[in-house]
Design a protein that fits this description.
Length: 221
């Protein structure tokens, strides 16, 4: 059946002329992208009947309203284009039934490729290879998102640990008040207190030589 493709070509010519493109006034990148979107949608609208026939038991008898190319709805979501409309087709008993159909395309490498078609809400046929590629891509995206979340979680944990470590540093002073050091409490073993400086080195200080304030702090730990 050739007429849908002829209609698509004619429609593309109308769009091209309507956009006012000419050698003297080259289209901007944004205009080119918009024209490409129009072309993709027109192609999908014209190609949809051929894809619907693949899911019909009697495709040669299928009738599409000549005006369906203007009335069928076209929706775009990301790299997906979905065409919806109606078709009259015969069943196994020769009776004619009107079906609601959808055909979904994926724009890949610049061209729309049919993914699947539905009749009355049920899958009529599916492009298994494309579906597997999408599923694989989706799984990769999920794994990448999970990895990014784990990385961010690890970074946040590291930030919290660093903040907690920084908050644990204080000024320690001996009982005479003549000596002091910036460090954080590590542990107390018997009468010896272990402190850690900011550079990571540790020092052992006799508990009795700490100031009264520091001794109270150690007892509270």
């Amino acid at each position: 059946m050739v007429w849908p493709h002829r209609f698509a070509a004619a429609t593309l010519l109308v769009i091209f002329l309507a956009c006012g493109s000419s050698p003297d006034t080259p289209a901007t990148p944004a205009e080119q992208a918009k024209q490409k979107e129009f072309q993709d949608e027109v192609y999908c609208r014209a190609d949809a009947p051929e894809q619907v026939k693949r899911g019909l038991k009697h495709p040669l008898d299928a009738r599409f309203d000549p005006g369906m190319l203007n009335s069928a709805s076209v929706q775009r979501s990301g790299d997906k284009i979905t065409v919806a409309g109606t078709v009259v087709a015969k069943n196994d008993f020769g009776g004619e039934l009107t079906h609601q159909y959808t055909v979904t395309y994926r724009v890949r490498e610049g061209d729309p490729q049919p993914l699947l078609a539905t009749l009355d809400g049920e899958v009529a046929w599916v492009n298994s290879r494309a579906a597997n590629e999408i599923a694989t891509q989706g799984q990769r995206e999920i794994e990448a998102q999970q990895q990014a979340a784990e990385t961010e979680k690890a970074k946040e944990h590291a930030r919290l640990e660093a903040a907690e470590r920084e908050a644990s540093f204080r000024t320690w002073t001996d009982a005479t008040g003549q000596f002091s050091v910036e460090a954080r409490y590590v542990k107390r073993a018997m009468d010896t207190v272990t402190l850690e400086r900011r550079d990571g080195t540790t020092i052992d200080v006799p508990f009795a030589k700490l100031s009264t304030t520091d001794q109270s702090f150690v007892r509270s730990q």
